[in-house]
Amino acid sequence: MTETHPPVQWHGGDQGAEATGHPEVDAVLAGLADVSQMPPAQQVARYAEAHRALAETLRTIDAS
Predict the structure, then answer these.
(1) pLDDT in tens, 11-59
(2) Number of domains in the chain
(3) Measured between alpha carbons, how far is 64 from 17 in angstroms, rounded to an integer?
(4) 42: Cβ–Cβ under 8 A, 6 or more apart, which residues?
(5) Using CB atoms within 10 A of its CB, is residue 5 exposed (0-12), middle (13-18) or buried (19+)?
(6) Beta strands in the chain (DSSP E)
(7) 8 phi and psi, to 5 degrees?
(8) How many CB atoms neighbour CB 29 within 10 A?
(9) φ, ψ at 62 (rounded to 5°)
């Protein structure tokens, strides 16, 4: 059975994103809330880490 979650509405900046209902995804999105305030090099690193975490979460979901 596949779980469905409400769509994420990304607002960027300080507004954050709506909760997805998936704790790992919500944690990654929360970690991106302040990315616009970082220097570009740090933004790249933060997005790369977010991508890695989301890809791992997706692999975990797909495996179950």
Answers:
(1) 444 455 678 888 999 999 999 999 999 999 999 999 999 999 999 999 9
(2) 1
(3) 26
(4) none
(5) exposed
(6) none
(7) -80, 135
(8) 19
(9) -65, -30
Query: To 10 degrees, what angle do helices 40-63 and 23-31 make?
Result: 170
Q: Terminus-to-terminus CA distance in the chain, angstroms?
A: 10
Is the whole model's pTM more than 0.70, yes or no?
A: no
Range of the domain at 45: 21-63
**Secondary structure of residue 17 in the 3-state scheme:** strand
The contacts of residue 53 (CB under 8 Å, 6+ apart) are 24, 27, 28
Q: Alpha-carbon distance 6 to 53, whole Å?
A: 20
Specify if 46 maps to a domain.
Answer: yes
